[in-house]
Amino acid sequence: xxxxxxxxxxxxxxxxxxxxxxxxxxxxxxxxxxxxxxxxxxxxxxxxxxxxxxxxxxxxxxxxxxxxxxxxxxxxxxxxxxxxxxxxxxxxxxxxxxxxxxxxxxxxxxxxxxxxxxxxxxxxxxxxxxxxxxxxxxxxxxxxxxxxxxxxxxxxxxxxxxxxxxxxxxxxxxxxxxxxxxxxxxxxxxxxxxxxxxxxxxxxxxxxxxxxxxxxxxxxxxxxxxxxxxxxxxxxxxxxxxxxxxxxxxxxxxxxxxxxxxxxxxxxxxxxxxxxxxxxxxxxxxxxxxxxxxxxxxxxxxxxxxxxxxxxxxxxxxxxxxxxxxxxxxxxxxxxxxxxxxxxxxxxxxxxxxxxxxxxxxxxxxxxxxxxxxxxxxxxxxxxxxxxxxxxxxxxxxxxxxxxxxxxxxxxxxxxxxxxxxxxxxxxxxxxxxxxxxxxxxxxxxxxxxxxxxxxxxxxxxxxxxxxxx
Length: 470
Description:
Blueprint: E1 5-10, H1 17-29, E2 34-39, H2 47-51, E3 54-57, H3 68-86, E4 90-94, H4 100-108, E5 113-117, H5 131-136, E6 140-145, E7 163-167, H6 179-186, E8 194-198, H7 204-215, E9 224-227, E10 245-248, E11 263-266, H8 270-276, E12 283-286, H9 295-304, E13 309-311, H10 316-324, H11 329-339, H12 347-360, H13 369-403, E14 418-420, H14 425-433, E15 438-440, H15 447-461
Parallel strand pairs: 1-2, 1-4, 2-3, 4-5, 5-6, 6-7, 8-9, 8-11, 9-10, 11-12, 12-13, 14-15
């Protein structure tokens, strides 16, 4: 029998957590199924060439390529077209809030099973109020395990509607490169210490945290500092203090080369914690408090039980002081030894097994139209509340931007979208970041699928933009 197709969809989110989990599940599925990853995250550009998994990028609503209402329908139609093209039996969604378009796809095709991969450790944000309605639209809910689950006091922690697995991680001991091989791949000196810094840049407070962390590395003899993104602000100004040997590298999946590093400074996201600690990299966590993820709870657990060090993300001096502790070889040795006690992160295989089992179930499904309508009403109501709450902030922002305009604002070009099925990561990155609308197709797509995608694009972008072959 042919392998069943399973679509793994993710939101854009903050960081790579959703996409990394989907990648781990897809790798586990490959022997028994045909996984396809669709995502609104630009990081999806790395996956086809490095992991050999078919992928499609879907522009998120934050790209503003179309009005919100059109985007909901666009997402629904993109997913349904992909289901028709691949005869997919299961659609999973890894994200905090299942978009209306995702739920509408399930409601439009009752034979399609919808699974919500719902991470725990939520902060008490407004999204919690529609958890019940969202859950009712699902055929299954899976919670990827979290090593800090004991500190989860959020709105999902007491719910009984999900199945909890072991933690999910792209780090696997059997696949990870040795210290020597990892350093060779990254072009690092084999005899000098190396620290990995993954804090990101953007708003001023995030930038200040980056600078404070890097200052904590000053004085570490012969240190090589590795970042995955250049330490500069939006105006091109350096965030790094003088005196550090900094190198920016891009390698996916980074989990494969973690043995190259003697220490790490990282945000306390799901992805970073469940890769760095199983790899026994001594780490200081500096939490990002934005979004729904309760990174502070995760950081406290890691610190309290001796697996990592937690820096007070609100105190720049404390960040520098805590990072400086990584220069002590005794502290690094103790942290690394403690991390050896962590259980294996087998959640990717567990989720893959559950999704594969769903492809074998033949029980007829029914559209949940009433629940769907209630959910959409609540979604529009919540959207309206957010709109009112943000009006004042937007007016302040408009005044500020009038006085201090951005130097370079990307405007979406009103011209035909570019269609393409490239798997080259550099080319994909360029197309995704371009000001021209990009319609990505899975490799080996049929002419029927291409035609349907052109119809969807025309509906979304209007008669002004006629799809072309490029």
